[in-house]
Every structure is written in structure tokens, then in C-alpha cells.
Amino acid sequence: MGTRQRILDTSLAMFNHHGSANITSLDIAAELEISPGNLYYHFKGKEEIINQLSKECELAVGTLLARVDLEAISESEYWVFLLSLLRVCLHYRFLFLDLQTVAPPQGNRGAQRLMKQLHSFTAHSLEALEEKALLQVKGEQREQLADNLFLLGLSWLCFDSGDSDDKAVERGAQRLISLVNPHLTRQLNLAGTDQ
Amino acid sequence: MGTRQRILDTSLAMFNHHGSANITSLDIAAELEISPGNLYYHFKGKEEIINQLSKECELAVGTLLARVDLEAISESEYWVFLLSLLRVCLHYRFLFLDLQTVAPPQGNRGAQRLMKQLHSFTAHSLEALEEKALLQVKGEQREQLADNLFLLGLSWLCFDSGDSDDKAVERGAQRLISLVNPHLTRQLNLAGTDQ
Amino acid sequence: MGTRQRILDTSLAMFNHHGSANITSLDIAAELEISPGNLYYHFKGKEEIINQLSKECELAVGTLLARVDLEAISESEYWVFLLSLLRVCLHYRFLFLDLQTVAPPQGNRGAQRLMKQLHSFTAHSLEALEEKALLQVKGEQREQLADNLFLLGLSWLCFDSGDSDDKAVERGAQRLISLVNPHLTRQLNLAGTDQ
Amino acid sequence: MGTRQRILDTSLAMFNHHGSANITSLDIAAELEISPGNLYYHFKGKEEIINQLSKECELAVGTLLARVDLEAISESEYWVFLLSLLRVCLHYRFLFLDLQTVAPPQGNRGAQRLMKQLHSFTAHSLEALEEKALLQVKGEQREQLADNLFLLGLSWLCFDSGDSDDKAVERGAQRLISLVNPHLTRQLNLAGTDQ
DNA sequence: AATGAATGAGACTTCATTCAT
DNA sequence: CATGAATGAAGTCTCATTCAT
Asked: For chain C, which end, N or C, has fewer CB atoms within 10 Å of the first or last residue's CB respectively?
């Protein structure tokens, strides 16, 4: 694997683990056992690394969102999709943490766009469910539910730092489903949701 | 107002606004228009300021929790209490953000204790509601609901940095209530929830 | 006892114990439980305290040296005198340590004068002994012996930080005598030297 | 010469000349005309520089002591050895001064070990001389003589900061020999001791 | 591509000293 | 006499970044 990619991978791991603010460019170089000069050969600095990771995440999320057709999707497909989406967010979780701590000026724009995308996607999901008469929530309450789903989706990233990522992703999905459940006209038939 | 208190107030405001990691001790001194030496006369460093704010928050939350009797409380009293609790958390919101970013070793113990308190309080609240037959959720799902309430309570702090604190607090409370609502046997009669 | 004197006493004790370089003016004020302002009311700063202590020491040594008549003194009187002299040096021992560490520009002049006095006094003592035909050392060797006595007198200050000052003073005197002994025509009959 | 070595050399010179307490890390950087950052690139701080110098000194002294066989050594060899030993101590003289001023907790352990080594070596030297029937001193007095030699050896470091190091070393050795001389059964035949 | 020494700005902290009360 | 808050210069140290090789 090329050095550039190794820098990205290692940075991501370290940022996720310790918070991007607590990792210096020298930390990354040391972990990779490369010289700081080499790091700067590949990236202008820590910020550019973060921006790149942010773009990767945007791309991954964007691809997922673009592929999904909320009108046509089956329930089991939706479950798979949700897991994928959460997995991506978990993979780049430090971005979401940064959003809350790093002020907008420096705070990278990409992550903010991402958030808006995810937020509006959440709202659309609920609308789609309602159009299929699967969900029964009134206008304002639906917005609130969307907000809640979105917030919970994010905050779960920060706290469920459990065992394996796969398990964490499943738990996260369950958690989100449990928020929607009470408002459904019938229980969703989601693969993996065996409650 | 004494300089010590002004330092605490200004620090809190700056920490809440920009994240504690992005504020240096000199920033605080500059904002207060005092010399760095003076800042260090009152506090050994940024960390001691944070610890003090953490203690204040713990005290405020502890006092609120100690005063409330979940068995005997009326619905309107609960509403008032919930608003107070959220107001305190909002006031010291940077502490909750720090928790997610700053590693446990340095990360102040106080805020971690606080979180556990709030988490277990959330669980107890639901238990109390169920004993009064107001709530109907099975064991595991109740835990999940408690988790959700807790997580949402925290994450709301980070994102709803809207207009006035009072409005934000009301919105936060509504948000939490909306999570519980679907599981109630009858609608709570909470003062202020007139929507 | 007046504050001024208490400052001198406490400073001396702290300087002797920790080295003057490691004691700040705030340390002294704290130890005395007075305010830094009060300290500066009595002395312009740490340096003035040191200068004053240095003067005291010079005075005490000067008085001792002035009183002694090397030609007429008896052996037992000499012993008493030597003990007194060493006691004074021990009492102000930090001055002698400072001499070695603090460069001449800042290094206080007083202590340097003191050293010269003591050095030449040592030489004179040996001359006196020789005139009485008690000592038998040739010119150059006598100078060297004087140097040795002087150096040992000082360095003993730094290392014999044993139990009580009185014991230390006796040990110091013994140590010096043992240097002279081999060159004496007959053993000195010094009170206290019962070995 | 590498920067690291230049830092060590310059630091040693400055420490010896002004006392380690009076030299700041910036002083060293300024003298070398390097940036403070560069200094810290090579050493974590002043303390690490001192520790390194201390190790060097320990090593040099240790090597000398290990090579010498007190039983078998000839007198002229001993003289050479003694000069070497004193030269090393003079070269690192600031270490011995620090010992007296800097409290044990921070005061570096290495220099303390060194002192003990030198002290016990002094005692062993005298024992060896006695076994060869060259020296005639009773038990307790021998200990005192050893102490005196040791103390004088150290304090000479502090005061004989004369012209060239070579001259100073010779004077120091002479000074030590003159302490032992009176107790010898016959004059030592030391190369260079032409008295 | 890669190295690693070097830079310099700025953060953190200490302390001698002043000054209004 | 005494207080203690306040100052500011200076010391210690970190880190993002550059650059010659």
C-alpha cells in the first residue's frame, strides 16, 4: 500500500481513538515510522489529511444515499442499507466529534455538508415511510422524530465504543429502529431485527 | 464581582462557545483584559479552571437530583425539574463535549461521575413511571429507552446552540418527552407542553 | 520579635536548607505566613535579604577575628575560638555555597571579602604557631597547608549536614586539627580533643 | 561535529563557568546560535542535557576506576592515574557543585552515585597503602584522612579555576598528596612530585 | 520519495516586584 | 505595618512546517 494511503489509514485510526485535536502530525509520522518531512511531502499538513478523510466519507455516504430509492426499497434492503450507512459513519467517527468541538471557521466544511445530507435524508426516509402508510406521525412531530434519529445516530458514534465495529453497528441500528417502532402501523420486517 | 469569579464565568462562556481545547489560558486573560500572571494567581492553569467548573456543575446537578423524589413528584413538578436539569447541563455544556474528545486519563473524573449519575437517574425515572403504571415498556426495551433519552439529552446540548438558552432548554425537554410519549398509558399533563 | 528579624531568620534557615537559588521570595513569605507585599516592605527583594545576612556574617566573623590575638592565645582558648568561628560559618553556610555557584557580578561582594579574610587568617594562624615553634612546616608547604585548612573548613560546611549543629561544629574542628597534627612538634592540648 | 555533541560541549562549558542554575536553555541555544526548537529537538530539556553529561562523567570515572589495581599499581602509575581522575572531575566540575545546591529529589542520582564511588575509592586507596606498609594511620584516623582527601578533592574543583586545566590538575594532585605525606613511612616516588 | 535537522511562533508557567487599600 | 491582587518579563517547552540532502 502506498505511503499516502497508509498515512490516511493510520491518521483515521488515531483520530478516531484519541480525538483529532490530541494527535499531532509528528505523532502520525512516528506511528507510521516515517519522517515528518515525508508526511509533509504527501500532505500539506494535518488539516489536509482531515479534509481528505472528510472527502472520502462524503463520497462513501453520497454513494450509499444515491443508490437508495426510498420509494422502492424493500424492508430487508433498507436494513442492509442502514447498517452500511452506520458502518461508514462509525468508520469516520472522529469527523462527527470534531464538528461539535472545532469552530466552523476552521472546522471543515465537508463534514458540515455531510451532516446536512444525513439530516435531510433522515427526514426523507420518514416521509417515504409515511407515504407507504407505514408510519403515522404528524408534521411537526415527524420533524422532531427525524431530528431525534439523526442526533441519536451521531451520539451513538461517540459512546458505543464497544467490542467490534460490526456489533456496534448492529446496536446502533437497533437503537434507531427502536425510536421509530412506536410510530409504525405494523412492525417492520427487518432482517436481523428479531425482537 | 471578584476576578476569580470573572475568570470562571468568562472561561465557561469561551469553553462553551469554542470548545475548551481551542481556548488557551492567554485567550482567557486577553478576553478579561488581565495579565497572564494574574490568571495564574487565581488558578494554577486551564485545567484547574475546568476542574472548578466541573465541580460547580456536579454540585448543581447533585443538588437537583437529591431534591427530587421520583415516587412522589407530580407531573408538573417533574416538568419544572427536567427543565432545571437541562438548563444546568446546557450551562456547562462544554464539559459534556470534552468527555467525548479528551481521553480518560487527563479527562476529568468529575464529568465522568456526573455522566454516570445522570445515566442512572434516567433509568430510575423510567422505573418510577412504570411503577405508577404510567409507562409500559418491557425490561430490555426500557433500558434502551433510558439509553436513548440519556444520549439525546447529551447530544442536544451539542447541537442546539440556538437563540436563547431558555428556548433551547424547552426544546430539549420536548425532545426528551417525545421519546417517552409513545410508551405512556396516558398523555402526561406537563405544564408548558401545550403543543 | 520584629517582622524584619523574622524574615532574616526564616530566610537564613530556608537558604541553608534548600540553597538560596531554590527559594523564592514568595516561599519565604508563605513560610512566615505574611504577604509578599509585607516582605517587600521590609526588604527590597531577595538580594537585599542575602546582603543583610552576609553583613551579619561578616560582622560576626570580623568580631571574632578582631578579638583573637594569635600571639598570646592559649591552646584551650584557641579551641574555643575555633569552635566559635566554625559555628558562625555553619550558621550562615548558604553564603559559602552561593559563592561557588553564583557568578561574581551578582554574587555578593561581602561573602567574597569574608572568604579572603578567613583565608588570610588561616595563614596567619599557622605563622603564629610556627613562631611559637609549635609547628614545623616550610614556606611553600605552609601555604599549601593553609589552603587545605581553608578549603576543608568550607567544604565541611556543605557536606556535614548531620544531626545537631554543635556536633557538626566539633567534627569540623577535629577535622581541621587532624590536618595540622602531623606537623606539630608536640600534640596540642585542646579541650575537647580527647582522641 | 554534530549538533547534539555541540550542545553537550557548550552546555558543559557554560555550566562549569556560571553554574548550571544560572544557565537557561535559551542561553545555550543563543550561544550555539541555534533555535530553541532545535535544542529541544536534541534534548527534552536542560535536565536531560545534565543527565547526559552526568552519564558521561560516570562512565569516564568508572572506566578509570575499573582499570586501576590498587594492589599492583606502581607509584608512578598511581600518579598518572590520579591526574587522570582529577582531570575528569575537573572537566565535569559543575556536577559536583550542583550536588551541594540541588536537593536530592531533583538532584540527579548519577552524580550521587559517583560521589559514593569516589569516596569509597579513596578509602580503599588508603587501605592498599597500609597493606603495603607505606602508610601508618590508625582505623578511625584513616577514615578521617580519607574523608579529608575526598572533601579536598571536591572543593579544589570549585576554587582552583585558575589558568589552564592541566596546571590546575597538577596543583590538585599535589594538594591531595600533601595531605597523605605526613603519614607515609617513606616519601612516595611520584613522577612530577619534585618536592 | 524520503530523511531528519532546523525554524519560529506561540502556549504554558513562574516569579520578582509594585501598588492601591 | 500589612494585605493580596495585579503586572510583565522571562523561562520552559511544543508543534506545524520547511528545507537541504
From this structure: N
